[in-house]
Request: fold
Amino acid sequence: MKRLMAAVSVTALSLAMAAPVLAADNNEEPVPVSPADSEGPSRLSDIVVTATKRATNLQDTPISISVASSEDLTNRNVQSLMDLSDGSVPGLRITTFEARQSALTVGIRGIVPNDANQPAREQGVGVYIDGVYLARQHGLAAALLDIDRVEVLKGPQGTLFGRNTEGGALSLITKKPTGEFGLRAVAGVGNLDSYNSEVHVDFPAFGDFAVKLDGVISVQGPVTKNRLSGEQGFGEYDRRGLRGQVRWTPSDTFTATLAADISKDKNTPFYSQLLNWNYFNLPVVPFTSASIPSGSIRDLSPLVEVEGEERMRMADIGVPQQWNINDTRGIDLHLSWRPSDNLEIRSITAYRDLDVDQWDNIGGAHRPPVVGPNANFSRYSLAGFWQHQFSQELQAVGNIGDRIEYVAGLYYFKETVSDDAATPTTNRWNADGTGYTILDPTPTLRGSRFIDRASTAHSESKAIYGQATWTPNILNDALHLTVGGRFTWDDKDGTLEIVNNALPVVNGVAGELHFASSVERFDPLVTVAYEASENVSVYAKYSTGYRAGGASSRSLTYRSFDPEEVEAYEVGVKSDLFDNRVRLNAALYAMDRTDSQLDFSLITGTRNTLETVNAPGTTKIRGLELEGLFQATDNLRLSASYTYTDAQVPDTANPFTGNMQKVFIAYTPENAANFAADWESPFMGATLKAHLDANYADASYSFEQFDVQNDSSFIVNGRVAIADIPTKLGGPSMEVALWSRNLLDKTFVYRRDPSNRPTFGDYGNFNMPRTVGLQLTVKY
Reply:
């Protein structure tokens, strides 16, 4: 009840503040809609995207794109990018790094970096918010602040978006100030002690200025409870964010928008539980044995539970667990000047930084160190991560006559990142494993830790790019040729300062380890598109992209690795059929990736040593993407999608053993599909809205080096709402909604780690359980 009252009180306060100023509903940046057919079902709406740096109709844009609108996000109760891990956006794969909500792994078309949360590592899919690149995995799970749409651009985006977009780009576009009063307030409550509150206020214009404020709170209790009193549980979060925008429009030809945001994402990792034990059926010696003979395995403490089928709701071992805390801040200035009808000059200046305090004690006695009587256990992974970045982009977007449209730009990016990590143990067994004590927490305090590693990295990138589309005066203007290219100059360096609480030692010599790289490259794009009819178009595209190289700070020698590069070939068709009631889009692609960056890990005691190497030969990724929409009636819309991905990586030498072995693509199911149905109809003077979506994915791998798969998944989400409830003449409208994620409460392992099979067993993480909630929305 306290959580519900907290959410409602924020909403009520916002309404009270806004009550004296009443205006019409705020239709923020509406998407153009095709006219309805008065004699039949409504037509599908046009969808506007900005994948080519200009506003275009999705169906006229020759690239494979999936779009999730603000309504789609609401229907799926998406409050963070974490919620898109169910596969509801076609082709987009999102998961936690390790089991931590503090860093997300984002993948498209088999480009899925496994461990990109180190200072000198990069993502393979670029994440952008309002055109500003977010360089780190950390902080991506922060609460979303009034998103208008999410665009998923598939395939290399090296020409217009640059480095680290070899798999594609995930572009988030926020709602902008309108200059007309509008207020939307949300209050919700759900199971797992969850509650949320949102306030979005568009203020009336004063002079040439328009202002918009957004605030979000999203809280959830633990999925798995901690037995240790006073400590945080596992899988919980407390996400809060605030964003303000000011738009200045002194004339019809100039606009300046200044935006600033701040977010605090407090969370805890999901519990890593032992899925099996004694995998190789070895002889078992008692827990109390002084030693373990070769070829044998020590028995478990009687307190340890092995559960490989169901998610543990209460941890069997209590451990110290604090919040992971991600603090993100950013400010960006967008300028737009239109000196003529045929030209727009844009500038995007942005600064962002983030601070991360990581506290991860997720395994208790379910993961190394593997120990016996009177010995220490439970690895507490503590890390600090600090990053700041500056970027400047200039764009010229225009056309030459009626035949040529172009985009040209200059880009500059600079980043500094540093981290440290420590892994103390927090628990100690008694003599027979029937009890344990909590160790002195002093080693967990910053300044008192035994530092496993510490490093710093710097990146500087400069680019010039251009892209033009020519429509020759032939074939009734149905043929379009696009040519583009990007020159990039990348400089990167790093220093490994500490290994095992001392200077690194290589070949008996102690001292800091360094790497430096300088890369110059050109990424071209060629697209041929043909309008076969008014509602059907086909295209063929060639493009390239790359992910920058670096060095592994988890390595004892700071081993460096080269950039990986990809060449992609794509053919596709886009169609609106049956009087714009059916939309079918398809893309078939082939990508050849060279110098694939692969991670190999070796766990010794509490230390995880990781080496990243470039695979020999060519990684071949082939795939098919299908998406369909069907406006069945005025009230019912159906949608479905299917993706097929086949990835073959050449055998690669394991740097720890020297042996050639099979390697795999992480978190990429071979087959994935989803289906959704949306209903909308009048209901007692209001509107009834119902949504149901179902999402399936084949089993996939968690690691490149292990031939071990996770479980397949099937997730159903649903929402029923009564919207547009009138309150009084000129007053607000209301919506009451009941929602559920994982409606059928399906349980599956989304991450499985077999690193310790010989001495222990597999451990892993289960997906989120069913969540349900009730939500009230009020709009002016």
About this structure: Residues 2-18 form the longest helix (17 residues). Confidence is low (pLDDT under 50) at residues 1-39. The chain is about 5% helix and 55% strand.
